[in-house]
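Project standup — Tuesday

K.O.: blocked on the structure for the chain from last sprint. Re-posting the sequence here as requested.
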Amino acid sequence: MRLCMSIGLAAICLAGCATTQLEAQWTNPDYSGRSLRGAPVLVACEAQEPTLQRICEDQVAGQIAALGGTPTRATQLAGSNAAPVAGTDPYLAAARRIGARAIVRTTLATGAVVAAPAGPTIGIGVGGGSGGYRGGGVGGFGGISFPVGGTRVSNAYTSETALIDPANGAIMWSARATSSATQDATGQIAELATVAAAAIRQAGFY
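H.V.: unblocked you, prediction finished:
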């Protein structure tokens, strides 16, 4: 029983210590040195739920603005989510309409799922010391422990972010990031957007 408790606590600790991090990135050498500072940019997010999509667009747009870009959210434009023509990006036409120099497209997905006790752990046991009986030295302990409140499930989100050239649909830069598992989806998406923006800046686009 004690071993099970130790393993469970270790898993929770590791989940809590994990951080949002960039796992991989790629830069197209044809776009080396291109600056997007001050340029209009179309921000588009793809997610399984409309709520997460809007949160993602807000967070990414905020990061692009902080870098010095002029973002427009795809959900603000009529027809930006129309079915794409085969072989093209669905946001190219919308980006060209607003004169965007780039599309920042983020795809949000659910990564690891972590289960943890939803409440405190209660232990019940019986213990004894050497003073239990006169003249005796017998002592021992035993008991069980169990969580209170059931199990809490937390999701870890992953993001694939790409900078796309609206002129020809070429990918200028792309990266993958993963967040730590928590029940705060908004916080995770904000961290993913922050990590991606930092990588875009370091790649020289801002």
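K.O.: great, moving the ticket to review. Confidence is low (pLDDT under 50) at residues 1-17, 82-87, 126-147. The chain is about 30% helix and 35% strand.
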